[in-house]
# Entry
Amino acid sequence: MATLLYNNRPTLRSTRTFNSLLNDMLRDTLPAVTDPAKSFVPAADVLESEQGFELHLALPGVVKEDVKIDFQEGQLVISGERKAPVAEENAPKFRRVETGFGSFTRSFRLPDTVDVTAIDAQLTDGILRVTLPFDSKKVTKHHIEVR
# Structure
């Protein structure tokens, strides 16, 4: 006796092929990008250690003179600007722009355990590293022995 296998699931056709074909057709008809965006939001990573927090902001192409860091009302405000490249007459033209240019602002609410006067910032290799040390004078947790 022969056993027949039957698949009752319908065949799923990939729409990826159609989408990539459509993208290829439309790519050549898109106008050239003349002005990149006027603002962007840099990616941020927050790390915590025993000494405090460390904040990493991705700012490739930004010079330290264009970055401003302020502490206001419990918030750390980081703002600045990444200047867009100047388009020259005979230079290659942008066809697709994924890099953010223009002004940026990021705000981070800081806990009371951070020593605001000891905050340090360094910009190297396109990464802004802001060190937020814990305030060793403030007591956040304390166990009291019963006698």
Summary: The CA atoms of residues 141 and 147 lie 19 Å apart.
